[in-house]
Every structure is written in C-alpha cells, then in structure tokens.
Amino acid sequence: MPFEVLVPADEVRLQRPDPGCASRVETGNVPLLLAEVRHALERLVRSGTPHTIDLRAIPLGPGEEDRLLAALGRGEVHAEFDSMGPTEIQECGYAGVWCVTHRNPGGTTVTGRFLEITYAPELLASPAEDVSAALERLTAELTTA
Amino acid sequence: MTSELGGTVGDFLRARGVSRRGFMKFCATTASLMAMAPTMAPKVAEALEKARRPSVIWLPFQECTGCTESLTRSHSPTIEGLLFDAISLDYQETIMAAAGHQAEEILRDVTKENWGNYILCVDGSIPLANKGYSTIGGVSNVDMLKQVARGAKAIVCIGSCSAFGGLPKANPNPTGAVAVSDIIKDKPIINVSGCPPIPIAITGILAHVLTFGIPELDHYGRPRAFYGQTIHDRCYRRPFYERGQFAEHFDDEGAKAGWCLFKVGCKGPITYNSCSTYKWNFGVSWPVEAGHGCIGCSEPNFWDWQGLYRPLSTTQWGNWTTVGAAAGVGAVAGAVAALASRRKQRPVGEDVEEAQS
Question: Within 10 A of B250 (CB to CB), how many other CB atoms are there?
C-alpha cells in the first residue's frame, strides 16, 4: 500500500472550521502601527511634516486591519472621488489622521490603503493643472454663451 | 497592431480624460505595488510623465498558460489599465484577437518596427532534447526565442518555467527543458519567478521597467522589490513559529487555531516571494492564510525538493535504516582513508635526518 492510513475513511468526520479562529491570529503589528501614528502626529504638530503609512506593506493577520481602523475611529470628514476607480478619504477619530482607500475601476478590489498623517491629504486639494484647465474651459464657455 | 511610441504615458492618460488627481492615485498605487515608500509616488509620476509607451511582445513556450491566467487576474494596475495605458502589448497569443497567419504577420511587423526597443516577455521553458517538442507555427521555441531576443531591449521571464526551467525540467526532464538564461547570454534578463507569479508582481515589474528601467535584481535575477525577503520574514504566523506553536497535522487543534505550518512542510523559510504581503485573489488570501504551507514555487528546482509535506528540518534520507547504513559506509570509508594517509606519513624528524645525511 503506497500510503499510510492515518484515519479510516468511515471514521472521518468533517467539521465546519471555526470562523472565529482566524480572527485570533495576532502579528502584534496593530499596537506598533498605532505607535507610529502617534509619533507621526507629534512630528506634524512640532514641525508640520506629514507622513504616510502604506498598510499594504505591513504583514497583518486576518481581521487586524479592521481592528486597526476601528481603533482609529471615524471623524467628521468623509470624501469620495471617482477617477480610475473610486477613492474614499475618511478622517479618523484623531484629527490629522486620514485613511485613504483606493479601489479599482469596478470598485470591487482595494488597490491601495494608506494612513496619511497630515492637515489635509493632497488628493483633496484641486491640482494646479486642473484649475488652470478649468479656467480655460469656463472662459471658453462664457465667451460662446 | 503597432505601438504608439510617439506619446508618453502621461500624454496618453490625459488624452483619455484622466485628471491629475486620478493620475496621482495611479502613481500612488503603482509605487505601493513596487514596494516603494509612499514618498516615491511623485517620482513615479515624474517618470511616467516622461516615459514612452513601450512595445511588449509575449512569447509562450513550453508552459501551461497559468502565468497568462495570473496576469489577467492582476488588480493593480489592472490588466486593462496596463494594456491600454502604460504599455502596448502588441503580441500575446492567449488574449489577442488575431490568430493563425494574421498573428504571425503581427509578430513579424511588430519586431521589425520596434527592433531594439521592445520588451520581450517569455513564459514556459524551452525544450532542447527535440526541437519538435514545442513549436509555434512550425518554428521551434529555441529558434523563435533566439530570433526575437536579438531585437529586444530586455527580457522578462514570467514564471518559474522560463526563469529556471520549472515543472518540465523536473527529474527526469524528458524534453531537455532549460531556462531562457541558459540560451540567451547577451540581453538583460529579469526573472519574475513563481508557479505562477503573483499577478501584481507581473504587472508591477512591467510598470517598473516602464518608469525606472531594470530594477535591482538578486543573485537569481529576480527583482528585489518582490523577492527580497522570504515568505517566513513577512508571514503573519511568524509569532507562532517564534513561540514554538505548530500545527502537527492539517486537522489538529493547532491547524484550526492558525498556528505555524512549518511541521506540515511549509517552505516559507527558504522561499523568496511576496505572497505574504500582496496575497492572491485580489488581495483576499494566500496559501498559508488558507491553511496550506508554502511550496516554494518561486525557487529553482522546487519540484525536485524533498516533498510538499516534509518539514525542512527532516533529513533527505528518508528513514533511520538508510541513515544508519550511510553512517556505516561513511565510517568504513573514513577508516580506509585514514589508513592510506598514515602509510604515506613519515615519523617525526625523518625528513630532517634525510636532509642532513
């Protein structure tokens, strides 16, 4: 017989996996990330220097990213824009901490998630090139009207 | 199809109505998947503004099409985004509309028009035992590779087959399969290994070649951005390894609790890849998270390793009887060698006496 029989077939009992077991896996990175956010906030207050954390670059266990975002909470500002897919910008419960989530054009997949510690994320401001182009367009619109 | 070499990627995106905000979003996610710091996003933007859209030719050789399947599952940049925005994928047999003579004509025209400037992507190993084992339109893989590689700016080997020989090269290697680097010696080669490679590794490397050229490579020619660390280095189950908490079998309490899979054969400690950070299935999960150990598919000759479920810490000899026999043979060989050496040795001082006489 090529294989050693560990459990006879008639004794096999299939069990539904415990969905809670995966959420108990902790890498220990959540408190470390919160500490990095605190450190970045301190630098922002002291010198005005912004900081960005790429959450995709940190190994996190199942559920840990959700726990991190839950710890940061939700603030007053929520913004969305749609360019090459939807992007959500949520101020966290701590002013100056923003969660920026980029999705693919179908909105089905998160393509990037960043924590930005700044007074206002750059993506919220209208880019100078777009403003110049808008001026030209509006001028042309008013001229032809 | 011809590539639009006249415009930059930035021009192309603007012409398609992509705003500056959207362009910066694209650059931020591209920097992230190239394992660059978020502060590099403006530099990616600067590079993309100036980068010309290169022509890319993809040749499939002795392969299973798994690498093409992986490419089409990329979520960042999306395959559509990569196809139409960043590069000009002029020849790819699985996803191109043309077939037969029309496809062969496209390959001839594209190589001729972009000679010296196109990126050549290859998936599949190249059989050398008999040229007839794998052909495209009657042309053997080895002849087609040599011909098309002559005009390539760089070669990107997609998957472990083209990078190292892969499954076809596994013992006894009936087709004489070899890697691209065994045949082509005079072109820069980037090995994006894996069986298949992670989807975004494929598109991320192509994006890097577009923006910053050839990335930093390791000793196997793999980009350090994706292959610079082992699976073990970034595994979320590492804390269990450190605490000595292992799953002993796939159905035991340790496995259910999500403990380390080292003892059920995980090859994470010796495998360089980024499955543990970028994951699979649009970032949903990856083998270890699903409960199965890493099989080392991005390493050379992984198919001939000691087995998917044998822990790295066990010997390659299989059982104690064989180990004992080997030890016995070793002891006898050692004794014979010692005896032969002793007969050649001279008593201390004999050489001095000889010199003085």
Answer: 14
Contact A109 B37 (CB under 8 A): no
d(CA B122, CA B182): 13
B257 with A21: Cβ contact below 8 A: yes
Q: Could you count the other beta carbons within 10 Å of the beta carbon of residue B134? A: 21
Q: Hey, of A36, A54, A67, A100, which one would you mutate to test binding to chain B, going by the most B CBs within 10 A of its CB?
A: A54
The residue type found at B11 is D
Residue B8: alpha-carbon gap to chain centroid: 29
Are B82 and B203 contacting, i.e. CB atoms less than 8 angstroms apart?
Answer: yes
Distance CA B296, CA B276 (A): 13
Q: Are strands B55-60 and B88-92 parallel, antiparallel or unpaired?
A: parallel
Q: Are B51 and B8 in contact (CB under 8 A)?
A: yes
On whether ipTM exceeds 0.90, the answer is: no
- Per-residue pLDDT tens over the stretch A17-76: 454 444 456 777 899 999 999 999 999 999 999 999 998 877 787 788 999 999 999 999
Report pLDDT digits (tens) over B245-261: 999 999 899 999 899 99
Chain B residues within 8 A of A62 when measuring between CB atoms: 236, 289
A40 forms beta bridges with none
